[in-house]
Amino acid sequence: MFLTKKNIIKLGDFGIARVLRNTISVAKSMVGTPYYLSPEIIEGRPYSFKSDIWSMGVMLYELCALRPPFEGSSMHYLSLQIVRGRYAPIPSHFSRELKTLVGQMLEMNVSKRINIH
Hints:
By secondary structure, this protein is mainly alpha-helical. Helix content is 45%, strand content 3%. It has a domain at 34-112: Transferase(Phosphotransferase), domain 1 (Orthogonal Bundle).
């Protein structure tokens, strides 16, 4: 997400999914710790725009909880946490609807993950 001088939020894509097709270590060195990677990318499975929905879900979670949903002391442990898909709920003062949205965005089953169409 980018914030312009006029306070307009824009979404951008650095093409990380294409980089990861070859190696995760290259992606890590190019874009930092990959908290936002979807399970399907980590596992080398086919991916689609729903990987972007996952990444937006991670970002939304982090905005609410003030920490990422998945953490690890190394790329290996971070990847394990992501593919397990378990995370603490966002703080209780957020609405049920927001909690549901985060859950739909961080759905492990790609076919059940929320769609933006």
